[in-house]
Amino acid sequence: MNGLRRILSGVIGLAMACWATAAGAQTLELLTGLRVIDSNGQLVGDVIAVGPASGTSTAAGISTAVVAFQKGTRVFAVAVAKQGFQSDPAVELWFESEDCTGAAFIRDLRLDLRLLPAVAAIDNVVYVAPVNRPATAITGLSKARDDGTCDTNSGYGGPAVPVVPLEDLGARFTPPFRIRRR
User: SS3 of 67, please?
Assistant: First the structure.
């Protein structure tokens, strides 16, 4: 299964790196024929991967889509659900404080499988590690959830990569999001 994950990750990574545009919208229509639109009718981006329906169905029969973005020279992928942007389930955003303040760190459970940077999307803000930033040992006392709330009942001690906020996608796009066919 690991080999299949590596191949799938490579195909998705290559597609995003080759086809993301500087404006943030993509031209990946040949892959899925789907796009994500915000509540104002603005194109969030073309879909490069999808997740199964889970309670919230759309016209396309799926509930989560992955969209590629480019900010400067950085290409990254973010999951989009009806109510907002989501972190990869294998990525956790930790803080050494007890209240999710101060320096942020990504604990990535799949570092060996990534062709693109690990991304945490917390309250629609995308956090990403600078290129080639090594992991450092931290004592994580709080963990941010996708909705912006802080989990103070968790603890983590181990390697994590320092991250910086890259972009507030909530300032560009307004939920709820819809997945539509072209």
Answer: strand
CB 120 within 8 A of CB 93: yes
Same domain for 151 and 120, yes or no, is yes
The full length of the chain comes to 182
**Under 8 Å between Cβ of 49 and 65:** yes
Tell me the sheet residues that pair with 106.
Answer: 93, 161
Q: What percent of the chain has pLDDT over 90?
A: 27
Q: How many Cβ atoms sit within 10 Å of the Cβ of residue 59?
A: 10
In this structure, the answer to whether residues 125 and 174 fall within a common structural domain is no
pLDDT in tens, 129-156: 776 778 889 999 999 988 889 999 888 9
- Judgement on whether residues 134 and 119 belong to the same structural domain of the protein: yes
Statement to judge: residues 176 and 164 lie in one domain: no
* Three-class secondary structure of residue 99 per DSSP: coil
For residues 66 and 83, give the distance between their C-alpha atoms in angstroms, rounded to a whole number. Answer: 14
Nearest to 124 by CA among 164, 88, 163, 171: 171
Same domain assignment for residues 7 and 81: yes
Taking only the tens place, the pLDDT of each residue in 44-87 is 998 988 875 444 444 545 678 899 888 888 888 889 999 899 88
Give the count of domains, the chain.
2
Range of the domain at 138: 91-168
